[in-house]
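Apologies for my clumsy wording, but are you able to produce some protein sequence, whichever is easiest, and the tokens describing how it folds?
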Amino acid sequence: MIRPAAILASLLLPSMVSAQAAPRPVAVTVQANRPVGALPPVWRFFGADEPNYATMKDGRKLLVELGKLRSGDVFFRAHNLLNTGDGTAAFKWGSTNVYTETKDGKPVYDWTTVDRIIDTYLARGVRPYLQIGFMPEAMSTAPAGTPYQHSWRPGFDYKYIVSGWAYPPRSYDKWRELVYEWTRHNVERYGRAEVERWYFEVWNEPNGYYWKAPREEFFKLHDYAVDGVRRALPTARVGGPDTAGAGGAFMDDFLAHVTIGTNFATGKVGTPTDFLAFHAKGQPSFVDGHVRMGIATHLKEVDRGFVKVTSTPALAALPVVIGESDPEGCAACPGPENAYRNGTMYSSYTAASFARIWELAARRRVNLDGVLSWSFEFENQPWFAGYRQLASNGVALPVLNVFRLFAQLGPERLAATSDAQLPLDTVVAEGVRGAADIGTIATRTADGRTAILVWHYHDDDVAGPAAAIRLTVSGLRGKAPASATIWRVDGTHGNAFAAWQAMGSPLNPDETRYAALEQAATMRPEPVALTAGKGGTIAAFALPRQGVALVVLDAR
């Protein structure tokens, strides 16, 4: 068992450490009457290896919170939805037992467990980004003696994840029929209009650990699956291939195959494709006794992916989903380099990285539809055990609060600058290793308010001076300043981890302490004093290092 107190004892949050340096003055300016384009809500995608956690107590609780972010427009992607097994969750494992065979090889379909998972999503305002995979045991061509369920656990080499589910099917016709029957069942159970809103994609990272066959075999697997989906629902939204990274030559070949290649399932030219997907990850390290994030690695891969998916003219305008976009690559792997996860390093990184992904998409003219955070929860694990997750034992972490701030941003972006925001090219090339990145995004909400996000980020998880923000907003309607509120995520706001540390890091908080942790995780709006000054309406507030704040000005 991982003991969180042992792992995290030396990781006192920088925002709670008294920094001797004076606050850094930062000027943020917003032109509320100058729209500069749309800000798509790309943050509304989440995912996890372990599909069965969704139906467990803390999984259900967290899905409620995700659904609240944007009810009916939040999507969840999970591995292992077609795996054979009894539905018992484990690290990087899950199963539904949808497909078995009789002794004479006839298919037996059982949708009980997978229905329960999808029912749980939909009841909480979340829809499936439906990953078609992995291979049922009765259908797998794994060599004799290959175990079906992997034996991986935290600390083991990643190679142990690969087992009998990672191989092609014995019969592609049976594979297609399984996908057809599953899709047909979903249409019957949930209705055509509902299932038309889902995303359908085949497998996960077929250019990496997750596929044990040549790439042409994956293209065949993909074609047969898409044919099965579209036979049951011709209007289904299908895409992929959710490669590890930008995909390199694998992605080049995939793009060529779905546009000008011969479809393995139909014999026609090309494969129906409604969206494209790839993955991008950062690379934190442990340096001089602290975590150093790798935001530059993350953003470089995002940019490579954007260049790749727009390289084929016939596909360049398609919606794009970064099907996994995270600070590093293994949610279930704790360790010193991953010790950023419980506190405000993760939340400030999320704000700073999403801001740059929006910028890169605009630069590359990418139709960015989603940026999926591979971060959910790990059921019945020690408190703050060091996994990449949104909540611990049902209590929200600071990073979830940043998604709650994103949810308050509007669809229309407004002109905004911060004199301490690092240029995009600097962050992509070098990360944030010198001066801190104190940046902003401003939007107009659907009801006419002005919502302004401000973050204070640095790659190094060490103490530093706060920022003294002077926010000036021009172009507001009315003669008097609007009223305003501020929402905060930092060392003392929206931060259950800091509260748990202050309790002495109890291994088993009782009911009273649990309630206190839930209260500590809750953001509360505070009024902001506004004055009419030169250039517009002025607000001033402090933003600690690793802090994120949202200022909302009501319309007049």
In short: The CA atoms of residues 387 and 422 lie 29 Å apart. The first helix runs from residue 4 to 8.
